[in-house]
């Protein structure tokens, strides 16, 4: 199997097999990012697909194979913000598709988490996604969000508190209910 650098070079040269392999590598992770950003699986798929189309048109602008995923999530974030500006007045209007079989506990937890994410402001979703889900360092996350590291830590702390509060409200077994 080729390493990612060779695949990236092949994709930049227009080799379809390399482009397809890049999509296969990054699609599950990007789709998860988009799902937790939007709270809607169909919208997440649309944003993910649009992001890959932009990748195909702009492979030459991606500096190296190490920058691919950062580039993808930045473009996905911008696609979401564009859609949000054009279609929705607030995040509360974003539909939350329920892909959940209520008999499956893990899917219920995923649904509850997706619902809680849908209730957060975009800036709070993004900080949680890049730090807690994507596991970017504080420095990388701050650069991605274009804020200082101290601002990132404060925003992360507040976003985690908000998320936990929402999860407590939706959990019928929480002590506060």
UniProtKB/TrEMBL annotation:
GO terms for molecular function: DNA binding; sigma factor activity. Keywords: DNA-binding, Sigma factor, Transcription, Transcription regulation. The keyword ATP-binding does not apply. SUPFAM superfamilies: Sigma2 domain of RNA polymerase sigma factors, Sigma3 and sigma4 domains of RNA polymerase sigma factors. NCBIfam families: sigma70-ECF (TIGR02937). Belongs to the sigma-70 factor family. ECF subfamily. This is RNA polymerase sigma factor. The lineage of its organism: Bacteria, Pseudomonadati, Bdellovibrionota, Bacteriovoracia, Bacteriovoracales.
